[in-house]
Amino acid sequence: MTKNLYKVLNDKFGFSSFRKGQKEIIESILNEEDVVAIMPTGMGKSLCYQIPGYLMPHTVIIISPLLSLMQDQVEQLKKRGEKRVVAFNSFLTPLEKQQFLQRIESYKFIFLSPEMLMQDLVKAKLQSIPISLIVADEAHCISQWGYDFRPDYLRLGEWLHEPTRPPILALTATATQQVMNDITLHLNMVNPTYHMQSLDRPNIRYSTVEVDSSHHKFESILKQIESYSGPGILYTQSRKKADEYALKLSAAGIRIASYHAGMDQVDRMFVQQQFLQNEIEWVCATNAFGMGVHKDDVRQVIHDHFPSSVANYAQEVGRAGRDGTDALATLFYTIDDEHRTIFVATNDFPEEIHVKIFNENKYNGMSANQLVSQGLLSENHVRILDYWSARKTEEDTISMLQQLRQEKVQQIHRMKEIITNSLCIRHQIVQTFGQQLADKPQNCCSKCGLNTDEIVHSSQERSQQILLSPWQNRLSLLFPRG
Amino acid sequence: MLFQQIILHMVHRLNGERTISAPFHLLRGKRSGQTIQDVKSFGFTKYFSLFPKLSKESYDQTIQLMIQSGLLIVNEDSIPHTTKLGQLELRQLPKLKLNGWLYRGNERLFFQRLSLVTQTLSHVQAKSMAFTPVQKDDKIQQWVRQFLRSVPYQSTTFIQQFYQELSTVFQSPNLSDQHLTILCHRLSGFEVSGITWQQLSHALKTDELDLQIRFYECLHILLDEILSNPQLVILCKISEGIKTTTPLTDSAKKTSELHQQGYSFEQIVTMRQLKTSTIEDHFVEMAMNNPSFSIKVFFPNVDSNMLIQQVRNQQTKKLRTLKNAYPTYSYFQLRLLLVMGGDSNDKESL
């Protein structure tokens, strides 16, 4: 068996050894146990079900609540030459959906969004085929104590009642007791085996720097980038800011490009390619950047703001140092940045008045699109209200939205606290996800003491900015010896 | 700014006879009777459907900007006029070899195919097939997959031929260095990343939107060349179905077919169970696109050619004005006269 494991690892993934914890999880799955696996993000979760997929006879179902994550995993599998893979989500047209259901037996990996589980036809089709493993990705979303509760996810439990059901693998990066209880309870797990990795990423060192104005913030960021080398990601809060920084920094001779959801899809792909191939050293991005960027040697992540939650922060800094080598996460802030983050996080979140407008107009027969085009509600309002108004009374919707808003604000407070108090940043991050820190590395964080020069290399001579070539040369690059 | 110059060009030609929305609908390629009629009667075939996804917001923004910089004024009835400054700016408009009427946004489809075929073949040649397709659209991916299956894409000769065809068509005298620089850097392949619009704009010191207009122009020229040169076998295949063969909306096409089978206007209204005004739109469209279309049947006992000439001499495209001059004719008849008398080809004169 172990021999097979390594063969698949090598043949399909091109690795010769497992990362910490992967092998044990895979062995439990192959042993047909229910498994709860706690792993930090970006440390090879998907391998834990993909390898068993190749060693088990039937289909693997992966429930994934984040569309972009789902899309990325499908792309990664396809890139490795796996054709028997499909993402089944609300993006599919009715025709595509039909075609998929007709050929459902032919897929090895089926990715589903939780809302698809509510569709009877899908459920029935899935019950008609042999399944080897069910994976609940981002399983903390099933818990209302998790920071990202998705009520649709609860439907998975209804589906997992049958005694003959296949084993379940629940994957998450949250280890609080409440969340873990909810996961095992709602997924009807039977004597699950727990595989808990430390959520700490010891090679990432944390630094926070308070500055007194946004002008000084930019100066400090520029100085940091000029002094210490990338590859690096500079996270900012708005598309406009991302473009603005990129412009100013490239004028200062930094090889940098901006990246945000307002850019066209091909442009975004180009920036990813350039970053992967080290044609640019830095990417200045909104939180849209990260998913799908599989670059192991990111040495720095810089924030110019308080992220909206510790989970988001952990995810963004977690893109550094995946190769295990030291990396630096620096956060520059002014003391009133908190208000800005609260504004960004709650600005487009529906309030009581929006719920009322929505319900009144729905009653009067106005469509959601009309409400948006008349400027009464934003698209985001409609998306959220559409979902909840079908499930809750007006009163309940209002009070729940108020509660959610409060939670959002609290998460930002928590983030600010971690950054600004005098306690160890690493310790507090890990604690947020329900773990205690076993030991701290040297140069742990700016509060425990940090000598940046020992973590990241000083910047080298700047190489050239992107130069355009004549079309003949460009064509020969695309088709060498052509 | 090319984009602003194009708007000025349209405003100038519209000559106060349409509102400021008319250029917007035209640029988006709206398939309504009015817009389609404007294409011919004002000579806007170049610009039709140049930006199918242009948002009202960003259009309005541009207009506001142009008003602020004194290039045009828009009166309380939303009718735009160019200012003196605007007319000066308009003189900067270069001769553009666009043909929006013929390609109608499909040139983007052509480029999507081209870029994915290029990326794939570049990787095939490098014998490194693990890559993330630069085009995410499933339909494009399927098209390219099917296309590649139908050819010996793994053979060196085939890839060589593709390279040759590109080199050949790129040497067209109609393409400028700027065209080719833009196009080639929007293509990517094995260990060759594409360049973003922002980066291109920096390097070429030209506005992003202007570069995009030049890019579409480049695609129109390329398609013209490819479609007139059957020796470019691979490129011809990639261009399949891109050019609009019958420049009509699908619904008008049906009406046209019935008309050709000899059914009368009234019969078609009954058969298709559509409103009279819709069928009228179709006939106007047919009159615009079919050089052999005759309007005689709608003008019994009169010399329609003479009428066309008279209407042209009125020098207005405004129906209400025409109606005052010719109260005995219906709006439908006047529209037919207008399109028949419209410029058959866009003239460069302003």
Q: Largest sheet of chain B at a glance? A: 2 strands, antiparallel
What structural class is derived from the secondary structure elements of chain B? mainly alpha
| Overall body shape of chain B | globular
Report the oligomer: heterodimer
In this structure, how is the largest beta sheet of chain A organized?
A: 7 strands, parallel
Task: Give the low-pLDDT segments of chain B.
Answer: 344-350
The fraction of residues in strands of chain B falls at: under 5%
Q: How many structural domains of chain B?
A: 3
| Terminal CA distance of chain B | 17 Å
- Counted up, domains of chain A total 2
Task: Supply Rg of chain B.
Answer: 23 Å
User: What's the β-strand tally of chain B?
Assistant: 2
Number of helices of chain B: 19
Structural summary, described in words:
The complex is a heterodimer of chains A (482) and B (350). The longest helix of chain A has 27 residues, at 394-420. Chain A has 482 residues and is α/β, with parallel strands linked by helices. In chain A, helix 1 crosses helix 3 (47-55). In chain A, the strands form two sheets. Chain A has a seven-stranded parallel beta sheet with strand order 3-4-2-5-6-1-7, sandwiched between helices. Chain A has two domains: 2-196, Rossmann fold (3-Layer(aba) Sandwich); 200-482, P-loop containing nucleotide triphosphate hydrolases (Rossmann fold, 3-Layer(aba) Sandwich). Chain A has helices spanning 2-13, 22-30, 47-55, 67-79, 94-102, 120-127, 155-159, 177-186, 214-227, 239-251, 265-276, 310-317, 337-346, 352-363, 368-373, 379-389, 394-420, 425-432, 471-478; strands spanning 35-38, 59-63, 85-88, 109-112, 131-136, 168-172, 193-196, 204-210, 232-235, 256-259, 282-285, 300-303, 327-333. Chain B has three domains: 2-96, Arc Repressor Mutant, subunit A, CATH 1.10.10.10; 106-238, no CATH class; 250-341. Chain B is 59% helix and 2% strand. In chain B, helix 10 (177-185) packs across helix 12. Chain B contains 19 helices and two strands. Chain B has 350 residues and is mostly helical. A two-stranded antiparallel ribbon of chain B has the order 1-2. The two termini of chain B are 17 Å apart. The A-B interface holds A 75, 79-81, 96, 243, 246, 250, 257-258, 263-267, 269-271, 273-274, 277, 279, 466-472, 474-475, 477-480, 482 and B 115, 118, 121-122, 125-126, 129-132, 134-136, 138, 159-160, 162-163, 166-167, 170, 177, 180-181, 183-200, 202-204.
